[in-house]
Amino acid sequence: MPGEASAGMQIRSWRRLRRLLTVLALLSLCGCASQPAQAPPADLDGLTDPGFYAGMEESFRPPPGQLSFFNVYDPWGPLNRKLYVFNSYLDNYVLLPAVRVYRYALPKPVRQAVTNFFANLNEVTTFINLVLQMKGVEALSSGARFFNNTTVGILGLIDAATPMGIPKYEADLGQTLGHYGVGPGPYMVLPLFGPSSLRDTTGLVGDFAISREIDVFGIRKAIWASIPLTALEIIQTRDDLAFSYGDLSSPFEYEMVRYLYLESRELNIRD
Fold it and tell me: Which residues contact 79 (CB under 8 A, 6 or more apart)?
């Protein structure tokens, strides 16, 4: 039911917001707390000490003995941090200037048509992953969206399915692996793509292979089309992304992005 779906989305949004507020509260306390000169650097700067949370509202306290914001399996942390910095330079000096040209050259309705086109292309991998997860209702919805947007929506340039009341679902191979109990593995930062995990990187490669093998429009395999198409999709994806490096204004930005990425992925798997 639409009302139930809306309520579910509001609940998930509130859960994500509360997690974010928890992190922000902890960061604020970390930055403001001063330590005695002789205090030993134990318990992650005292954050696991129950007394640290005295007076903090119950709903914002992490579970006892857990500080998942820092407690992340990141064995390749030094390399990941270098790649994070590399991505920030790539974003500021290559992607964002390209996005500004993209926005200047194309009016908003045309950019929306580009977004719709790529969303429709990616509906194929979404459908396959929903089938693999044995989510029949969601898979039928995804298939119906692709059919209607490809036909009525003129190859996906127009989102005809949403006004028809056909809900949109997101699914990828990394999520499918998680659905069957595969853990995220080590945290990773990929050049250009950003936050990931070993499981999600494997899924990314698998989804890429699926999209090339099931090339409905015959443009993924054609070199003359695939290169400019990929470049356009990267710029379009960056245009739709609200995040910018440095926006969090925190010395813990790397840890914060890492935590929020992994948490959001686990929430997607459980949904």
Answer: 189
Ordered DSSP codes for 31-51 = HH----TT----HHHHTTSGG
62: DSSP letter? P
Contact predicate 149/156, CB 8 Å: yes
C-alpha distance from residue 94 to each of 84, 122, 133 (Å) = 15, 25, 37
**Contact between 149 and 115 (Cβ < 8 Å):** no
Q: Would the pTM of this model clear 0.85, i.e. be above it?
A: no
pLDDT per residue over 229-245, tens digit each? 889 999 999 999 888 88
Q: Which amino acid is at 12?
A: R
Q: Which residue has the higher pLDDT, 257 or 243?
A: 257
Q: Name the DSSP letter for residue 244.
A: -
**Helix, coil or strand: residue 86:** helix
| Cα–Cα distance for residue pair 6/1, rounded to 1 Å | 9
Distances (CA, A) of 18 to 2, 97, 246: 24, 34, 22
Q: What Rg do the C-alpha atoms of the chain give, in angstroms?
A: 21
Helix (H, G, I), strand (E, B) or coil at 147: helix
Domain positions in the chain are 1-69, 70-270
Residues 6+ apart with CB under 8 A from 135: 169, 171
Given a contact cutoff of 8 angstroms between Cβ atoms, the answer to whether 74 and 187 are in contact is yes
